[in-house]
Amino acid sequence: MMVVSFTCITYQPIFISYLTDTVVVTWNKDLVQNFRNAGQNGEPPTLKESFEREVEHVKDFDNRLSALPVKEAQQALQKILLLGLAETKVGIYSKFHDLAVYKMGYADPAAVRLAYM
Prior knowledge:
mainly alpha, 44% helix, 2 strands, two-stranded antiparallel sheet
């Protein structure tokens, strides 16, 4: 569900169709006049400490492979190329965030932390 609030539009309800997606916008002042934007939560200060980070630039990777024997270089290249296929937990933090919001609300520190992850 998506709620879009227009603050200064006075026209009637509209129907928009774009390719296969459909959006129905209903303007009803009684429904939207009391909506207020929530404050934004900043990134938790210890968030980056929670992750291991290994950054290797392409040039450095190329230099590293050039120094390896052919078989080891092939294995290193295959490991990098296939890395995304082996990751089976894609979307898990999104699901954790959804559950945290459901249980504790958007403003809860755990939900905010998961949102940034």
